[in-house]
Design a protein that fits this description.
The structure holds 2 protein chains of 2 kinds. The longest helix of chain A is centred in the last third of the chain and has 27 residues, at 218-244. By secondary structure, chain A is mainly α. Chain A is built from 13 helices and 2 strands, in the order αααααβααααβαααα. A two-stranded antiparallel sheet of chain A has the order 1-2. The two termini of chain A are 14 Å apart. Chain A has helices spanning 3-27, 31-56, 65-84, 98-120, 125-144, 171-194, 196-206, 208-212, 218-244, 254-267, 274-292, 296-310, 314-320; strands at residues 155-156, 246-247. Chain A has one domain: ABC transporter involved in vitamin B12 uptake, BtuC (Orthogonal Bundle), CATH 1.10.3470. In chain B, a hairpin with a 2-residue loop joins β9 (200-205) and β10 (208-213). Chain B is globular, with a radius of gyration of 17 Å. Chain B is α/β, with parallel strands linked by helices. The two termini of chain B are 32 Å apart. The chains are: A mainly alpha, B alpha/beta.
Amino acid sequence: MDESRKEFWLNAVLLVGLFATPVIAMMIDEPFYVTLATRVAIFALAAVGLNLALGLGGMVSFGHALYFGLGGYVAGIMAHHAFSGMPMVFGLSGSDQMLAIWPVAMLLSGLVALVVGVLSLRTSGIFFIMITLAFAQMAYYFAIGWPTYGGEDGLPILVRNQFPGLNTLQTWHMFLLAYGALVIALAVFAMLRNARFGAALMAIRQNPERVAAVGISPFGIKLAAFVISGMITGLAGAMMADLNRFVSPSMLSWHVSGELIVICILGGVGRLFGPLAGAAIFVGFEVIFGGLTQHWQFWLGLVLLAVVLFARGGVIGIIAGRERHG
Amino acid sequence: MSAMLEVEGLEVFYGASQALFGVSLQVREGSAVALMGRNGMGKTTTIHAVCRMLPVRAGSIRFEGSDITALPSYRAARRGIGLVPEGRRCFPNLTVTENLTAAARPGDWSLARVREFFPRLAERSGQLASTLSGGEQQMLAIGRALMTNPRLLVLDEATEGLAPVIRREIWTAIRALRAEGLSILLVDKTLSEILPVADDCVILERGRDVWRGAPGEITEQIKHDYLGL
């Protein structure tokens, strides 16, 4: 079987496997695995966002926790105000409707990514990494010192936000939402990558000067990708806050930014289904080794080391070849 | 024919070193101008300055009547200056189609037309640029520049390092573009190939334009003095 077909089938197995996990879990009455699959889908969604910036554009953002946490806080704060009946800023009322929360989470994440991008994309390499990290850490410390919304203790979402036609308190329904969002995000990623936008973004990663010579503004394309990337990760943050029914400054921490990078690397940077493969491995490690030892990250670190040294295409690369196909 | 590109008194520096000392040249609409000279005389520097890839200290560059001296390179390319750089410089980890698509701008030159113009690119559409032969990479570099739908095509050593049979193929393509009325500014060291294509010639010597005229006016003395032949 040639490598492109291998990758196609691997992607199909991942997508069907993720869907089958909660179905089987419900059949054997193990709801824990439904929540676990939802967690994989949401982490994968966040990593799809990062993969657009990191994988296609070569922008090593060490601050995507900013958008993840921001999305989470939008969900938490809007739900908090809907529950209390108190107005938010500018007299706006809160909402416990996901269809209202998600666009706000994406819009705010996009706006913040626009500001961060305008300031950070003028740099590259270590400077870009440090600036993105600095912005996320600023938000992290701001959230810690913001007593209105729980400060360091975080903010509980007392009743999970609602989605028309679904009972979001049922784990299966929550999974369907996360799965649906992931599939849409993957489709958007594939569409962007196969369009002129994606080709230009990948070309910029290889040589920005050469790209400018064919009429493309490297800054404009990178900024657009960075904003879309932030929006997708922001949506994932809003969903994660709803899944956990809790949002805290830890969602903004640099650990989360690192975890998203690790997920992309494990699965395969720039590969369409790399984030899903990476998220499955990451969450799997957390559950399996986390139950055995407190130091499960040590073992994950060894795996990451092996991937970086011997399989730069990640798990997708090991199975389907290092070159990108699907 | 009106001047499409007018370069006047161009001065370019690399740090403290001056590379161009008041270079002037013109490319009339629909004509081909050969920029000639020995190695290191400023041909590529001139081309890079015209394509706005190098800052200009003094002088002016006008394209279709507009001053583009201070424009960034991507804006110059959008105005209609398409560059085929020396050494091909395709995007190695992108496929042939991706290389072409990335550069696409609205106009007559579409992906289908470029594939028709270079059938070999159609055969290799899914292949990574790094896996193409030198000749195919050159076709891709020209195709990529055409995808920007340029009104002025700038070719820097388009046939350098290629086998004779491939060189002939590339020159045939350049002549076809010339016949279509595309304005061309080209650099090449092989006089027997460049002169039949050119309407006008400009010779650079140590960063200065020292001679200009029609290809038929180049005497043996000029060849000896400025081209090392």
